[in-house]
TrEMBL record:
The keyword Membrane applies. It holds the Pfam family Polysacc_synt. It comes from Oxalicibacterium flavum. The chain crosses the membrane at residues 12-32, 38-61, 82-102, 108-131, 143-161, 167-186, 198-218, 238-258, 279-302, 314-332, 344-365, 371-392. This is O-antigen transporter. The lineage of its organism: Bacteria, Pseudomonadati, Pseudomonadota, Betaproteobacteria, Burkholderiales. It is found in: Membrane. The keyword Transmembrane helix applies. PANTHER family: LOCUS PUTATIVE PROTEIN 1-RELATED. Keywords: Membrane, Transmembrane, Transmembrane helix. GO terms for cellular component: membrane.
Length: 400
């Protein structure tokens, strides 16, 4: 069964990874370094907004469907409806604020907001399937969603799209089309009046996701804020896209591990012992990928993105070192979520986010992209230490 699940998930992730990387390369080549820098900054900002659009419902849906928390059992049937109602209300409010506060950039910002709103809606459906252990159907939905959005992007590019907002709007159309199919399948409608108890349960996840995305995305925003040339920002963007592709390929293992950890959370010590092989395996894979990037970053950047992005190879090699921590951190995070210590995770993520932002502010003026890349390595190392400490402290935690 696990082999079947992993096979389906690897197929989906491989497909999604290849398509996403191909689309990213196509967008980078069409927009050019300067416009792709704008696109990358908008994408980073949108990822932060997506945390509020999600409202913590993705993680809550997956956790509660796998093993319900007694305090939330009565609300379990309402969770999909509450999630859908939340994302629609939040996206509408953010769009109104964008049009009132930043009218000159409203078109791009609104396109980004609704693209992420549609993407979050699709993730709600995937979270339900993952919590139920329906990994094969989850894989098929991933393939369908990415196919819809990729076809829309290619279509607008063929029609002559040259602006970032046009790319985001195309992805919104694709994600919305597939999202409508998901809502029809789930037969759910928005719940406009959401019980406070549900929001109380989602708040730690919002805190966790917001802190996490801050140290993942703040570097791009700080590069823009500190007036680093957009051409340089574009170089960092393409290097980081390749790192994200590696993370994406590793994600199916995390999905399988979370459900396994959650179902065995009644014995935390035994669960943590069973976690060790996966943790060691993640570190070994990170080491192998790091060595590959150290050796092959220059021809890889040239082959994938072209000579216009020369110089991004050095950044890619440094970011590869971070994979020594990023991949094991994924295993540690799934274990922590399964044990219900999301507040500890949120505190840890907040701490390293502050370190990351402060370090980048100090390093960017003098070291530029190199400083940003090395701060990513330091941040991931600190995060791993914090999560590991939390798991050790809560190894005797009673089942929830």
């Amino acid at each position: 069964m696990i082999i079947r699940f992993l096979g389906a998930q690897w197929l989906a992730v491989g497909f999604v990874g290849i398509i996403s990387l191909t689309v990213s390369i196509l967008i980078a080549r069409v927009l050019g370094p300067e416009s792709f820098g704008v696109y990358s900054v908008a994408l980073s900002g949108g990822a932060i907004v997506a945390i509020l659009l999600d409202g913590g419902f993705c993680r809550l849906l997956q956790r509660e469907r796998a093993h319900p928390t007694p305090a939330l059992l009565q609300f379990l049937p309402l969770l999909p409806q509450a999630a859908l109602g939340h994302v629609i209300i939040a996206a509408s409010i953010f769009s109104l604020i964008a049009m009132l506060v930043l009218p000159k950039h409203a078109l791009t910002i609104v396109a980004v907001i609704w693209f992420f709103a549609a993407s979050v809606t699709n993730q709600f459906g995937l979270s339900i399937l993952r919590g139920d252990g329906r990994m094969v159907r989850d894989a098929s939905w991933q393939i369908g969603n990415r196919t819809f959005t990729a076809l829309c992007v290619v279509s607008v590019i063929l029609m002559g799209a040259e602006k970032p907002w046009q790319i985001f709007f195309a992805q919104f159309i694709g994600a919305t089309a597939f999202g409508l199919l998901i809502m029809r399948y789930l037969r759910t409608r928005p719940l406009w009046k959401i019980p406070p108890s549900i929001y109380a349960a989602t708040l730690p996840f919002v805190w966790l996701d917001l802190a996490t995305v801050l140290y993942f995305r703040a570097d791009m925003l700080l590069l823009e804020w500190l007036d680093v040339p957009k051409f340089e920002v574009g170089k960092y963007g393409v290097a980081y896209r390749l790192i994200e592709a590696v993370i994406l390929l590793a994600s199916p293992v995390g999905l399988i591990l979370f459900r396994k950890f959650r179902l065995s959370s009644g014995s935390p010590k035994q669960m943590l012992q069973n976690m060790l092989p996966a943790l060691i395996g993640a570190q070994v894979v990170g080491l192998l990928v790091m060595i590959f990037l150290l050796v092959c970053s220059t021809p890889l950047i040239s082959l994938v993105y072209g000579h216009a992005y020369a110089g991004a190879d050095h950044i890619l090699a440094i970011l590869g070192v971070a994979l020594l921590f990023i991949l094991p951190n994924g295993v540690l995070t799934q274990a922590a979520l399964a044990l219900g210590i999301e507040r500890w995770l949120a505190i840890s993520a907040s701490f390293v986010a502050v370190i990351n932002i402060a370090g980048n502010i100090l390093l960017i003026p003098s070291h530029g992209l190199v400083g940003v890349a090395w701060m990513t390595v330091v941040t991931e190392g600190l995060l791993g230490c914090c999560i590991g400490l939390g798991l050790w402290r809560h190894r005797n935690r009673e089942n929830i």
